[in-house]
Design brief:
The chain has twelve helices and eight strands. By secondary structure, the chain is of the alpha/beta class.
Length: about 300
């Protein structure tokens, strides 16, 4: 039994030095845990969006920010299906769309051509007719192309009790349909002239692009009583730097090279939902995004070959 004596706890009286050592260790452990907790708090970003801040709002660009590709090109595809124009026009739309999605930047000439084509296509049609068709086209071509990550950002603002607007160069009718289907507050977009509810084929002013977006946001903020320093804006394009610079919380989403460089220089927040590695971090179906790009390119090439 003596051999098993090591199993029996030994009672030893604590010396002054051992008591001191124990107390010191306990104090160090307590202080360490407090330091860790304090560090975690300091590492966290302040809560944003701020719950209940009714003087704050969020403004989201649409193309390549909320949705993969350009809304105007998807709309054109839907109109072609409904015999609004010929195959040669669809080939142009498809090629511009494939280029836009692969390059990830807006080409002014492509966008201008797309707008001119769209205006000529809708001329003589009723606004109500295009709105109704827009609902169908959203379901057919746009719903599956909404970036889940950006959608979650918009929902965070809505959950905080803030208003959320789309701000886009796309026709306001398309933008309004998309905003409504996503549960957003509304949309600012390019306005096509209509008389007695019929499109004339002309614009009211100019496309809502670049500096025009910033002016629209500024005017809406004034009308809504918003404090722009407490607002947020989200975009993928360097063309929207004027809008992003207006607000206190600018975000570069899927940024083009120029915007990424500017955002880093200004210490703006960046989010990129396009690549497999980055998409994995936010739980996005990256393979689906790659497949969509490949599909758009294949469609463009097929149409190009048919034309030859």
């Amino acid at each position: 039994m003596a051999a098993l004596g090591w199993l029996t706890p030994r009672r030893r009286s604590a010396t002054a030095r051992s008591v001191l050592a124990g107390e010191a260790a306990a104090e160090a452990a307590r202080k360490s845990s407090q330091d860790v907790a304090s560090q975690k708090v300091s590492d966290r970003e302040p809560q944003f969006p701020v719950l209940g801040d009714d003087r704050a709002a969020a403004f989201f660009d649409l193309d390549n920010t909320v949705m993969q590709g350009a809304a105007l090109f998807h709309f054109g595809r839907g109109l072609y299906k409904r015999k609004f124009f010929e195959t040669r026009d669809l080939a142009k739309f498809a090629w511009q769309q494939a280029w836009f999605r692969l390059a990830g930047v807006e080409d002014p000439e492509h966008m201008q051509n797309a707008r001119d084509s769209a205006l000529s296509i809708v001329k003589g049609h009723r606004v109500a007719e295009l709105m109704s068709i827009g609902e169908e086209i959203y379901d057919e071509y746009m719903a599956e192309r909404i970036w889940p990550g950006t959608r979650a950002l918009a929902q965070a603002h809505l959950d905080a009790g803030q208003k959320v607007w789309l701000v886009t160069a796309a026709p306001v009718e398309i933008a309004t349909v998309i905003a409504r289907r996503l549960g957003l507050t509304g949309a600012l977009g390019t306005v096509a002239e209509s008389v007695d509810g019929v499109y004339t084929g002309r614009l009211v002013g100019e496309p809502l692009h670049g500096p025009a977006k910033a002016e629209a946001v500024r005017a809406l903020a004034t009308a809504e009583g918003l404090d722009l320093s407490r607002c947020a804006a989200y975009s993928d394009s360097h063309n929207d730097i004027p809008m992003l610079s207006l607000v206190g919380h600018p975000y570069a989403i899927n940024p083009d090279a120029k915007l990424r460089k500017h955002a880093r220089a200004c210490d703006w927040r960046l989010r990129d939902y396009r690549t497999a590695r980055k998409a994995a971090k936010v739980g996005l179906p990256a393979a689906a995004g790659v497949g969509a790009v490949a599909g758009g390119t294949a469609a463009a090439i097929t149409l190009y070959r048919r034309r030859r």
